[in-house]
Amino acid sequence: MLFRPLKPWRVFGIRLPLTPGIIPAKRHELATRMGEMVGSHLLTSADVGRVLERDSFRRELKGAVAEKLGGFLDRELGPVESLVPALYRGRFRDLGALLRWQAVSAVFRRRALRLIRASLVSGDNAVYRVLKRLRTRVLPWAELARAGFSPRVFDNMNTPADYEAVRRMTGDGRGTIR
């Protein structure tokens, strides 16, 4: 009668003694008392703290995490596009095309001006589409330096604070970078 029956039995509307069993009837109280006993007598927070502070425990934990993480990172996941849900793959491809052609810094010949101006007038402000129509070449920094370009000429200027920083650098107000 400790564990069974799980529910009280009734005969002619009268509950039979020791039903439900003692454990099912007092299970919430029993669980609370067991938790208190374990916490106060068997495993205290101080005990857990001491174990966590041990170098041997830290080494073992670090090794286990490194092993699991290494196993996860070493898996062959296939192309990045396969990780993107099918519903969003078209947008992912568009983003890839945009980033592939995004000009971080650029110097254009004057003859590119006509194409750039026409693109802007038509409302197409996507730099990557203009770059697809131009013949482009990536120059190594050494070549740019030999041509007289300062490293600061390619600083981004996205905010008013960036603009003010460039103005302070130039000092002469004409945009000459020192």
Model description:
With 178 residues, the protein is mainly α. Helix content is 55%, strand content 2%. The chain contains ten helices and two strands. The chain has helices at residues 22-25, 27-42, 45-53, 55-73, 80-83, 89-101, 113-121, 127-133, 141-146, 160-170; strands at 10-11, 14-15. It has a two-stranded antiparallel ribbon. Strand 1 and strand 2 (14-15) form a beta hairpin. Helix 6 crosses helix 8. The mean pLDDT is 76.
How are the secondary structure elements laid out?
Blueprint: E1 10-11, E2 14-15, H1 22-25, H2 27-42, H3 45-53, H4 55-73, H5 80-83, H6 89-101, H7 113-121, H8 127-133, H9 141-146, H10 160-170
Antiparallel strand pairs: 1-2
Helix pairs in contact: 6-8
Q: Which term fits the overall shape?
A: elongated
Strand order of the largest sheet: 1-2
Q: Ends: how far apart?
A: 92 Å
Mean pLDDT: 76
Quaternary assembly: single chain
What does the main sheet amount to? 2 strands, antiparallel
**Unreliable sequence segments:** none
Q: Strand-and-helix sequence, N→C? A: EEHHHHHHHHHH
Count the E strands.
2
Q: Percent range for helical residues?
A: 55-70%
Q: How many helices does DSSP assign?
A: 10
Radius of gyration from CA coordinates: 36 Å
Task: Output the structural class.
Answer: mainly alpha
Q: How many discrete domains?
A: 2
* SS strand fraction: under 5%
